[in-house]
Amino acid sequence: MFIAMNRFRVALGSENDFEQMWLTRESRLREVPGFEVFHLLRGPAAEDHVLYASHTVWATKEQFEAWTQSDAFRQAHRDAGQTARRPSYLGPPQFEGFEVLQTVDKP
Predict the structure, then answer these.
(1) How far apart, in whole angstroms, are the C-alpha atoms of residue 67 and residue 16?
(2) Which listed residue, of 14, 47, 93, 96, carries a Cα 20 to 30 Å from 107's Cα?
(3) Dihedrals φ, ψ of 53, to 5°?
(4) Which residues form a coiled coil (predicted)?
């Protein structure tokens, strides 16, 4: 299993625009081999931003990497940053990839 995360530092005052951009976008993830689950996370606020993360679980790292090279990926990201009310970011998203070593499920 592989977890792909992007962390976004969204400038204060742009939170609603950022959330609406994500919540109203067309997602094709369910059609992609290896995709398991997606979460959009809102984290703590700091003096100048709110921390958000996109959290996606994949069956394998190879399937995640194949998705990043696919037409589905290009289609999903073709309008990135092109919304009428573009949120303000403090720097680019920070990608973090994790190979899962242990999982504890609820019985």
Answers:
(1) 28
(2) 96
(3) -145, 140
(4) none
